[in-house]
Structure to design on (306 residues):
């Protein structure tokens, strides 16, 4: 079966996009990785309208990407932290940052410091088998075991 | 300056999200990386309404992420291909795919084959300095040279 005939209902990219394919959600995730946990600070840093921010935070909690816990009583206030499932979105943010740096004017408002070796660096994608750096042209997509043949229209 | 005080107007993640922080756009990019170039096939594979698809394709062309060129006259029909700027979004798609695989049920409709070494693999992020695999907890964000201090409210 060739990739062209594969039914996209079964697509992991599509599933991920269902959760995070929204610009407000992506900005909230950025703030979460910068350890901004409180509604008012996230609101200030993103400029998202309060009702939309409240909606998107609720969806991220429902999706298990953020957890919510009270940090204050009377009035009760919550903070939002990334779960493991949320932390696993880090490569997505790194990809956005690097592409934005390359094509958004080249400013570096943030740099990534690798605590292990001390380098200020931009991560790259590597092949776990051979260790080589890989890009789009080094890879081809093959139909996987759960690919489903498209029903013809 | 601490990262908390940095004005987000200068954010590369935010700039990238302006271009691609939309679920329709991200699905179109998926199709582009699967070498689907024609309106009708992209429409069929994504299920995006024709008017929205037309709008998003136009925006991707304007942004220099896709190019449009005719493949047929009378009636004139165009195909859409990734530019270099578009191809550089590949790490984003890989990140979405891997996260979707891990948290979307685990099905593998597509596998990535590294042409260089022959492995079927999932790329990982590595540090260019030491070569080690890196994740969110191995890295801290530092204010970069173009960070701008937030004006207090």
């Amino acid at each position: 079966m060739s990739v062209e005939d594969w039914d996209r209902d079964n697509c992991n990219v599509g599933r991920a996009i269902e959760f995070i394919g929204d610009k407000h959600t992506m900005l909230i995730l950025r703030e979460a990785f910068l350890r901004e946990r409180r509604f008012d600070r996230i609101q200030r840093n993103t400029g998202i309208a309060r009702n939309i921010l409240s909606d998107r935070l609720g969806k991220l909690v429902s999706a298990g990407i953020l957890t919510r816990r009270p940090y204050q009583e009377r009035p009760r206030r919550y903070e939002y932290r990334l779960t493991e499932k949320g932390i696993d979105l880090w490569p997505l943010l790194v990809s956005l940052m690097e592409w934005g740096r390359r094509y958004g004017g080249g400013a570096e408002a943030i740099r990534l410091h690798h605590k292990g070796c001390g380098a200020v660096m931009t991560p790259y994608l590597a092949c776990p088998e051979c260790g080589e750096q890989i890009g789009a042209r080094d890879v081809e997509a093959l139909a996987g075991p759960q690919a489903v043949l498209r029903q013809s229209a």
Remarks:
- The longest helix of chain B spans residues 90-103.
- Chain B has a mean pLDDT of 91.
- The domain at 3-107 of chain B is CATH 1.10.10.10 (Arc Repressor Mutant, subunit A).
- Helices of chain B lie at 12-20, 23-33, 39-46, 50-62, 84-87, 90-103.
